[in-house]
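haha ok so turns out i had the wrong file open the whole time. this is the CORRECT one, sorry everyone. sequence first:
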Amino acid sequence: MLSLLALLIAASPSAEAARIKDIASVYGIRENALTGFGLVVGLNRTGDSAQNSAAIRALSNRLQGLGMTLSDDDIKSRNVAVVMVTAKLPPGARPGQRIDVTVSSTGDARSIEGGVLLLTTLVAANLEDYGTAQGPVIVGGYSVMSGGNQTVKNHPTVGIVTRGGMVEREVPNQLKLSEQGSFEFVLNEPDLTNAARLATVVNARFGDDTAIAIDQGMVRLLVPDAYLGRQAEFLATAELLDVALDHVSRVVVNERTGTVVMGADILLSPVAVAHGSLSIEVSHRVDASQPNMLAAGQTALIENTNVAVREESGEVTLLRGATVGDVVGALNAMGVTPRDLIVILQSMRAAGGLHAEIEVM
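then structure:
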């Protein structure tokens, strides 16, 4: 399995090209988070219980807003759930535009499947209203309980209202020239090499001095004279240019699952690896000592503890491979498991044989 993974990675090209729009974004143009507090109704007795007074109060307040006066004691229902509604307001959104919203239960509801979200106001971080949301909730799971038995699939307390959000307020235009008549591209992953290459590609397309790399995370673009008054067209053209990317050599390991992912351009130096494992197993067993029927004495519990130690024979292997595939092949020949590979790679880096960052998830 490790060999197949290494071969697939090694088969990929050493340098990949990506569009500027895939590795960077225009400074100041971004999404905005919206949040709301609402109610989901129409549940089949899977909503919040009577112990969750927040749901009862919220429903009572909503009914009072509709002209019905009811006290909290008058409402006895599990068909209602208090939820948080979240959405992302895309840049350049206009009033009347539809967006998807996510609905998450905040109480003790078992499921919000089949519910309908009541009209909910969506506010931004500045607490100003930017949208509303309502509609039927779609849940990719279910929760069924009967006779004390319960069956749950996926996560039935989180759902989506497709195109259930409505933009009510326009976000101010974020595509504005600076005082110097320029825009800035912000790299998603700051890197000096990639920033310099981005500037080079833009200059090759629009002329020298059009772009300059300010630092590892930002590239400034001056609007050419031919595109004055057509800034959006200039940025759209620049975003489609391809840039040859350079990546930091990195090994990503997940100790919980034993997954190891490595790039093909990792530099290696000759290093010797000795692989062996020591396992200690402690077993605890409780036995009963019971006398014969006619014998005197009492039944007693005897605790027995056994300790077994096993040490596998280790071997020393000199790794001279220049590629990840060679190293993984040599480690496979040693019978190394993915979890052992994580420890070996960390030790190889400490010994100076692996020239890459190790990121543990």
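Residues 32-167 form one domain.
again sry for the mixup
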